[in-house]
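#dry-run=false #mode=assembly
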Amino acid sequence: MSAFVVPGWPLRGGVAGSRRSRALYPHHGSAGLLRRRAFPRCTAGDVRGSYTVGRRLPSETPPPLPVPTDYVLISETAEWRRLVEHASEIDRLHLRELMQDVDRVRSLRAEYDGIYLDYSRQRVTKDTIELLFALARRARLVDKIRAMQSGAHINVTERRAVLHTALRAERNASLVVDGTDVVRDVWRVLDHVREFSERVRSGEHRGATGKPLRSVIAVGIGGSYLGPDFVHEAFRTDPEAFEAARGRHLHFLSNVDPVDIKRCTQDLSAEETLIVIVSKSFTTAETLLNARAMREWLWSEMGRSDEVVRLHMVACSSNVPMVEKFGIDPRNTFEFWDWVGGRYSVCSAVGALPLSIQYGFPTFLRFLEGARSVDANFYDVASPLAGNLPVIMGLLGVWNLSFLGYKSRALHPYAEALLKFPAHIQQVDMESNGKHVTLRGDDVDYAVGEIDFGEPGTNGQHSFFQLLHMGQTVPCDFIGFIESQYPLCIEGEPVSNADELMANFFAQPDALAYGKTAAECRAEGRPEWLIPHLVTTGNRPSLTLLLQRLDPYATGQLLALYEHRTAVQGFIWDINSFDQWGVELGKVLAKRVRKQLNESRYFGRPISEEFNASTRDLMERYLRGQVGCVFNEPFDYHRDTDTGRSPL
Amino acid sequence: MSAFVVPGWPLRGGVAGSRRSRALYPHHGSAGLLRRRAFPRCTAGDVRGSYTVGRRLPSETPPPLPVPTDYVLISETAEWRRLVEHASEIDRLHLRELMQDVDRVRSLRAEYDGIYLDYSRQRVTKDTIELLFALARRARLVDKIRAMQSGAHINVTERRAVLHTALRAERNASLVVDGTDVVRDVWRVLDHVREFSERVRSGEHRGATGKPLRSVIAVGIGGSYLGPDFVHEAFRTDPEAFEAARGRHLHFLSNVDPVDIKRCTQDLSAEETLIVIVSKSFTTAETLLNARAMREWLWSEMGRSDEVVRLHMVACSSNVPMVEKFGIDPRNTFEFWDWVGGRYSVCSAVGALPLSIQYGFPTFLRFLEGARSVDANFYDVASPLAGNLPVIMGLLGVWNLSFLGYKSRALHPYAEALLKFPAHIQQVDMESNGKHVTLRGDDVDYAVGEIDFGEPGTNGQHSFFQLLHMGQTVPCDFIGFIESQYPLCIEGEPVSNADELMANFFAQPDALAYGKTAAECRAEGRPEWLIPHLVTTGNRPSLTLLLQRLDPYATGQLLALYEHRTAVQGFIWDINSFDQWGVELGKVLAKRVRKQLNESRYFGRPISEEFNASTRDLMERYLRGQVGCVFNEPFDYHRDTDTGRSPL
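#status=ok
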């Protein structure tokens, strides 16, 4: 457990951010960089000393875990410094040369259970990989992976385990955490999901007017939505899943913008619709507001009765009392646990329930099996790390950001069915690693937390690839499949449609890596004045994942691969990838604004001076507009209790 | 015209990229930065001199336009250097302080035709804005805007005018370019669109089996898809447009992945479907392949006749001969012109045709009117630039990237109907400004070309906002509306659903700007060891756009605003925002791969040694898989001509 150091111990002096970068960024030089860097570090002098990050009082609560006496920032280790020096050697090499070295090219790859990973177009040599493994050893990566697997409370700020992998453990596995066998709990809920989804699909569970429930609206936001939506799209055109879903519809309602409600309900009949409310706490503001809106919709079409709610609404939540208060049958509550983070929850009831109703439980099981397969690779730390796909991808991620300075990266699945995968991974990765302190609470003084984006190929090529070729360097991941879900050969074409797609898949990484020289342009006879506009510098790194076919199993594999890539990076960087304290401030301020809007609109109160002039003027302008609907009785903060979001 | 300098004149010596940065990045210091920077600049020494960017032979073709004798890179001007110095002053200020200055806050805003822009949360003072205007004068911004408006060939590498604004000019306006009145051409096509869309909507134009055509599939990729798709989503829930679209369906087929075909056609009947093929050249590989697939689908359902194609397929294209060869009636070809770039084409027939069929031509006209409104603001360079919204936004964009070093930016529309707006602007902005040379062909030695991304609010808050608060600094644009399309008041709630959405809209910019100090956390009684994890540094810039309501007019306004923001940045940076040579290399390589796949799959040829070992091994693995369909007669490159993409 001592792999994880804890917040609280006094910092070894000064504000981390003021440390001059010395050997860290030999090319960047002075402290000025730190001020200019994209992390707007406020040093102690700023804001009249009110920022005391790094300078704190002795801890009053005993730290949860012991601190190793040899603790240093990862950037202060010899292994890190060696990589910094190595980066300047790498800077003298171009991928054109590196790709000519067949021995190198053939060693920078790995394979596991049908996933073929080729990372030869990364700006690395075999030495780089060795140095990265040395860094991993220094960061005690293996210990941290074991700790995660064993259920230790590695989410130290929330004092929780991180066990999304347990959600897809085998039924006969066992994992006791804090006195409970979590795998048994997982399968209890999965069995419940299977049983309930079968009753809905068969028509045994019907709606209040006796009709079978053909449509599902899953209400949830963030992790309660992006994961299931990505999997839904990935399943949708798999031939078997497609058959299983015939005649059924699944929609996701996430945004509090009432337009989203309109979009979800406009083609549906409430009598045939089941609503799944997804919120672990059953207090997420947007979700509860939408839950009430959905309940109103059901009542407006079928009458205002408890039975309507009991038959048409179910919940994925851990807060059974709140669920019951809302009117949902507690027997139709599907649990998930504290050790499941929102963005890691798609394998829990959050995904299992809506997806099993739509596609059948067997389809969802295959998805879990795929994720389990890559979990096994990730957890197999007894085997050489060179065969551990998430570890390789995570180390390369650290290399690209912290050592080569690439602040963004792009994900290009060459499969239309994965069109929502980049958005899900955007959340998984950015919400996990967009942090600025180590577990112990020290400011990081190295870059962490990439911007992730992407679009399926070939669409992205016609959108932003111009910039990928000629603008900033953005490391890319290309994901492709050997077999298409829908082979199509059109007579007269040189290749099938899938081959056409994949021709681009094979070409783009080389185009990015090689670029095009002025001499090559000249040799083609291009006019001299145009040549600078045609030259691309190349040397832009990518990696390629080639899988057999996109089916539920492969979808699970890809999910787990990218979840664990994020975890590996967080382990190296010594940050907590599993909390998300940064969103709190926005919620608190929104609560204040909500109160102000209510008090101004319905009770004529002026806007408080606690808001700055810009926000006051914006709110005034806003309030002058029509709200467009009326409350019979406006909520009165002085009389009624606003508990943040009560479910009544 | 001399605002635009031309490629071709001998460079004033040396490779631009080797210039030591001197005063440019005083904080970044040495040349090493240039090697480390995200632009993988290959200096002359690399790759054994084969890169000759900047070092070129005297031009053999006369340059298209005269060169001013005082030409320098914009980064070498006094105005630029003053901004660099100013940036280090700004670095000592925090937005918390800046937002207290009511005079400053109230001056950093502008308004135009219902659009309210508040940029007080940018990391600027009033001095910064003055310095930016001085830079704009030095860059001859006003001349460049006038040149664009007048139809000069500002797209110097393709020798074309840039006149997407003419697409929404008033009918009685006139603009003669190269001897032709382009506005008259625009209205000729718009009238044709109106006439044809009315015939389809009324049922006068029917399908081959006599049925009215209720569904439209628009086939196109990149600019031929992302713009129309964003507008489609924006219109979809506007109450009037919704009524006009009742009973009709519009889908976009873009990807060459055959799964996209399946997704588009699975719920449609060919007898009731009209297919619009969008490709200016009528040679875009993916689009033509999909066009053939669509034609096969129509034929498979209605028989293999010319009449089926004539009645069910139309084209937006300038290549009438190719269109006719495909079998489409040339009278059903809707033209657009060389001076309309793909990513700027949504106001042309590309958007007009499918959107008018779906929503009625009057709806689309209102959209054009909105765009025209902001064009007028942008072109009104006789008035003070402080009232020119695109100019302000463009200058702030340059400030944020080139001077403050923020490599990405995010776009958060607080309106579910704008869910596809960020993806469209991602293309518009990244494909336009992801460049590395000036118009003249010199390497830029300053950062250009941001990464753009975004999600509608509040969804993004539950996804990546953690990183926006605690990770890299990413300047944000928040777009909100005073009136909702669907007001909803749920009894017992403190506020309407729209007010709930907007409470977040008003809160997030202040959360990003102010952050939270350790002292504030301590005052709340948080445990000491947790405090570093709760502190956010704030000082994260944003701007706010508040409009009255989201309707077709406002949609057009927003489109034009962001199109022109991109143009302003390109003008300041002296790059060509209107070409896209970077995508060429990928297309050429894909062509080679396509040929190899054909020759290996159907004629047993081994994979050529011209591919590197990684690509060879990947392709071999791929070819071992099943293609899943057969050609009656495989295309033979030695016998048949592959013209890249023949439409037959």
